[in-house]
Amino acid sequence: MFIIDGHNLLHAIFKSEEDSGVISDVGLCRILGRYFTLTGEKGEIIFDGTGPPDKGGFDNISNLEVFFAGLGTDADTVIEDKISASTAPKRLTIVSSDRRLRSAARTRKATSMKSDVFWNDVQKQLSRKRPAKEPAEKRQGLNEGETEQWLEFFGFGQ
Asked: Which of 9, 21, 53, 71 might form a disulfide with 115, Cβ 3.0–4.6 angstroms?
C-alpha cells in the first residue's frame, strides 16, 4: 500500500518537468490510478486543504483513494497518523520528500520513497510498451468446423 503526500509529489513533478504542461491534482490522480492498475498495487493520496468544491473528478479512479486533510490540519499530520495506526507498517510505502514523513516511516519500519524517484518509476512503468495480447484461439486451437474446412482446403476431406 502506497501512501502519497499529494502536494509534495506535485511539487516534485513541477521541479522535474519545468517545460511540460501544468498537471492538476485530478490529472495526477488519474495517472496514478493507471499506474496502480498496471502494477497491481493500491494507493492513497492525501492533499492539504479541503480540495475543490466539486470532487467528482476524483471519483472512479482505480486502485487509488483520494483524501483531503481539511481545515486545521495538514497532509503530513494525516499521513503520520496513518503510519502510526497501521497494523502492518512494513507493508506501507510512504511517498514524500519531507524528512518528517520519511522519519516517521523509518520509525515504524515502513518503506519510504522520495517523490521524484516515485514519479520516475511511474513514468517508466506507464511508458513501457506492453506486448500484444495473444488471440484465445492460439491456446484453444481450432473448433471442429474450422478443422474440417482446412482439411478440405488441403485435400484431406472425406
From this structure: 9
The beta-strand segments (E) located in the chain are 2-5, 43-47, 64-68, 93-95, 111-113
Q: How far is CA 129 from CA 34, 35, 125, 133, 152, in A?
A: 14, 14, 9, 12, 40
Q: Which CATH architecture has domain 2-153?
A: 3-Layer(aba) Sandwich (3.40)
CA distance 67 to 82: 12
Contact 25, 51 (CB under 8 A): yes
> Mind listing the pLDDT tens digit for each residue in 143-154?
888 888 888 888
Could you tell me if 116 and 25 are in contact, meaning their C-beta atoms sit under 8 angstroms apart?
A: no
Arithmetic mean of pLDDT, 122-135: 80
Q: pLDDT digit string (tens) for 28-83?
A: 999 999 999 999 999 999 999 998 888 888 988 999 999 999 999 999 999 999 99
For the CA atoms of 50, 53, 59, 63, the dihedral, rounded to the nearest 10 degrees, stands at -10
**SS3 of 12, please?**
helix
